[in-house]
């Protein structure tokens, strides 16, 4: 038996509607999850007469993650006050054309490994701009997240309070 044309069209529209709803729900929850991992995708800066301040929110795990730039290339930073230097994964360093300088032994959470000294011409987080920042190329560092260590953070004042981190660059 053949179904009337209107009933077939109704079923087809119902299938299309369900597929569209599933697509929208997936997009919505994917973006929500991304905001939970990085609530600082758009970094807000405040400028005063002699300072620049950036306010970062902690993510669901209590880490401070924010989008920024190294030598004009967009990166995702995770602030790490336990890291002596800015640590760049090797694959990312290669893509950015960072030089591998003198080898150094590194102590990481996964044990000892060898890294390489390098310099970043510029590092940007919001309107905060740092020049000539000491960094390390780290072969064993997974992913594309850059650890923003003390070689950059020591050039700033920072205060943590109630899940918020305030970074301040004095311009004088």
Structural write-up:
This protein has 172 residues and is α+β, with helices and mostly antiparallel strands. It has 2 domains: 1-37; 45-170, Acid Proteases (Cathepsin D, subunit A, domain 1, Beta Barrel), CATH 2.40.70. It contains 3 helices and 11 strands. The strands form 2 sheets. Strands 3, 4, 5, 6, 7, 8 and 9 form a 7-stranded mixed sheet that branches. A 4-stranded antiparallel sheet has the order 1-2-11-10, with no helix packed on it. The longest helix is centred in the N-terminal third of the chain and has 33 residues, at 5-37. The chain is elongated. It starts with a helix and ends with a strand.
How are the secondary structure elements laid out?
Elements: H1 5-37, E1 45-47, E2 51-57, E3 65-70, E4 73-79, E5 86-89, H2 90-96, E6 103-108, E7 111-125, E8 128-138, E9 145-148, H3 150-153, E10 157-161, E11 164-170
Parallel strand pairs: 4-9, 5-8
Antiparallel strand pairs: 1-2, 2-11, 3-4, 3-7, 6-7, 7-8, 10-11
Shape: elongated
Query: How many structural domains are formed by the residues?
Result: 2
Sheet of most strands:
7 strands, mixed
Number of continuous helical runs: 3
CATH domain fold name of the largest domain: Cathepsin D, subunit A, domain 1
Spatial gap, N to C terminus: 84 Å
Percent helix range: 25-40%
